[in-house]
Design brief:
Length: 66
């Protein structure tokens, strides 16, 4: 786990309980909304990666063996 991943997990735990899921993955799983779209677009820009939240969700899902 790198520093970004660890920070994301800590933020998610602060906002939503004891789940170890990264925040980007949690947002990706939410129903479509303007806030979700804005967050996902912002993460794409910050990380210079297309579909960043989807990628993080896939990595998290693979790590936990789901």
């Amino acid at each position: 786990m790198n520093a970004w991943w660890s920070a994301s997990v800590c933020i998610n735990r602060t906002l939503g309980g004891q789940q170890s899921e990264p925040l980007c993955s949690r947002v990706y799983r939410q129903p479509p909304s303007p806030w979700r779209s804005a967050f996902m677009a912002l993460m794409d820009c910050i990380f210079s990666e297309t579909a960043h939240c989807e990628t993080i969700h896939s990595r998290w899902r693979d790590r936990r063996g789901a």
